[in-house]
Amino acid sequence: MVLQLFTLLGALGMFLYGMNLMSSGLQKAAGDRLRNFLSAMTSNPFKGVLTGLGITSVIQSSSATTVMVVSFVNAGLLTLAQAISVIMGANIGTTVTAWLVSWLGFKADISILAVPLMALGFVFSISKKDHRRNISELIVGFSLLFLGLSLMKNSVPDLQKTPEVLSFIQGWQGYGFGSVLIFLVFGTILTLVLQSSSATMALTLIMLNMGWVRFDMACAMVLGENIGTTITANIAAAVGNTSAKRAALAHTVFNVFGVIWALIAYPVFLKLIGWITAGIFGVPDPAAPDFTVDVTYDANGLPVQTESQTAALYGLSMLHTLFNTINTFILIWFVAAIEKLVCSIIKPSKDSGDEVYRLKYIEAGPLATPELATEQAFDEIIHFAQISRNGLGYAGQAIRETDPDRFEELRGKLVKYEEISDRMEYEIAAFLNAVSEGDISEDTSRKIKAMYKIIGEIESLGDSGESISRILSRRNIHKKTFDQDTVRKLEDMVALVDGAYEAMIANLNAAYKGELVEVSNACNAEDRINNLRNYLRDSEIEEIETNQKNYHTSVYYMDIVNELEKMGDFIINISQALERAFLHR
Fold it and tell me: What is the DSSP string of 363-385?
């Protein structure tokens, strides 16, 4: 009996691992297309629902869809209202798992094909093409999922021989509506423990199929699973920003509202489920008062699927789908009200003005796959580049400033920006390290290497800003000043570097959207910086020789020119890293 229970736990682990592997393979094989589809097909709530439904049906993970949604809200690609509609659709899409398990996992023994499919997966895995290896992951995950389900079915205890195994669960069924609430809480807790509503749904289907629980109690567990999956999302979003918390709370509002109306209309709702199931599939009504699940075993002691078991499975899957569909149909008209509610509950962060200098996009909690995590990292790098450009603005002001107190204030800001650059580089690199530890595709690996290069160059830009402040401080200590012509020349140089920043950020955004074609804009900006540097250097030497300009003042001036030219080098390095990672396949 102990071995049987451990086999059951191992089979559950195989099921969970197969589901994660299948979802990961699908996202790696079609991640960019799914993300582009998600961002394009959300112009109204109905399209948003269809988008969430479609993507979640394909990748078999509402959590992964929610992660993409939260990432897009953070990046400003989706509004909170659009995200709510997509989450509604994801709730419907996740019910496809129950139908797959009911149709393929019980009625037909798809595990017979699991091992041959693994052989096909192995053939794909040795391919040199990254896309085929991702498909291999999908095939192996699919095989493990149904192999695990088959092992779970065959290793559950026979209650006819050992009724004491789950007598405590069967004892919960004698308290009327109180039993419904007990099983609702049980489903919620089980989902929290397993961290997967799909896995809990599969276990519920098995418990119902083996006659451990009545149909109405299994339905209560399904309602509890819908609450449990939202608690998981809220725990994940607890370490995230305001947008992540609001999206998770909207998910909770949606599901809790649905459970409330389903409990109020519970007997009527179950009768509707039974009537629809019997009418569509021609099976006995699973919600009928006299309905019982017949469990039959063959000569080898293995369970044989009966008509009553099929009816129960179809009925439970129908409840899961109908519950989320009706709930969506009711609440889709109130997306604006839900948005207003979650915004009133979760207020904007009241952090200090330094909030913009912290990470914004990679704090939204656990991620489904490294493929999606790289998108958040890229968001953060664009944010990092924009902050660095602000530092150049302060350097330009410091060059023009003649008031000592105001100059010291600007110098302090440049020192602070250098510290911010160091911290952001470290935090983004730590995140990329964690992503790299996962199973990532070659394309993603190449992009991550480019990201390491880019954040290093952006950090160097912060160092250059602080270096300019030190040069100006030494100039002031030696009581030297720049005349108006010198300041104007430096302003011209700063303007060119700012133009290079603009080209670099444009290239980052283009690469993020998959629209990067070339980086000639960055190369042209770098050429203009180098040409101006050469002209300023030559003209300054001539000024020293012909007009006997103060040598020490010229040294400070040329040091700043050279530092600005170095910033141009760092900036062009970023665009070149993008070119290598996003254009050369």
Answer: -S---S-HHHHHHHHHHHHHHHH
